[in-house]
Design goal:
By secondary structure, the protein is mostly helical. Helix content is 57%, strand content 10%.
Length: 155
């Protein structure tokens, strides 16, 4: 049959059969974009976005991260972390405290208000995750998490 006589899917469906749609890097980037958009929408009711939520989550985890550790772990420029911490600190959700192990560094600690907000925001984030992964079995969900951990933390 000639290309003229062939019916082609229309709209976004016709792009799903392209070489790009099978590229792992593209799929990871697209999944990331979709999950970030959904997470940011859900976190907006708490006055957070995915990045500020991530900083608050680590501060609320009692591990007392330094800003340098946050930048490395979140793969952000240190100046971005400073801005995120400044915003959370302005809202009295986190505090910078001197690191007892290195008096030149600050560690980040969530305030009681920060812990309470994180608990509420975490419920919203989990609901979004469950919604996005509704078509995935619990076993596949766990396997996906394992595979992503291998990619995210290769060493």
């Amino acid at each position: 049959m000639s290309p003229i006589g062939r019916t082609r899917p229309t709209g976004r469906d016709r792009l799903r059969d392209t070489v790009l749609a099978g590229d792992l890097s593209f799929l990871l980037a697209r999944a990331n974009a979709l999950t970030l958009a959904a997470a940011n929408a859900a976190l907006a009711e708490h006055g957070l976005k995915a990045r500020s939520y991530s900083v608050l989550a680590l501060a609320a985890d009692d591990i007392r991260p330094t800003q340098r550790e946050l930048a490395e772990f979140l793969r952000l420029d240190p100046s971005q972390v400073v801005a995120l911490v400044d915003g959370l600190e302005k809202r009295q959700l986190v505090e910078r405290q001197t690191d007892p192990a290195d008096r030149r560094a600050n560690v980040l600690v969530a305030t009681e208000a920060g812990r309470a907000l994180f608990a509420r925001a975490q419920e919203s984030a989990r609901a979004v995750e469950l919604g996005l992964l509704a078509a995935v079995t619990p076993q596949d969900h766990e396997r996906l998490a394992q595979l992503l951990r291998l990619l995210a933390f290769p060493d």
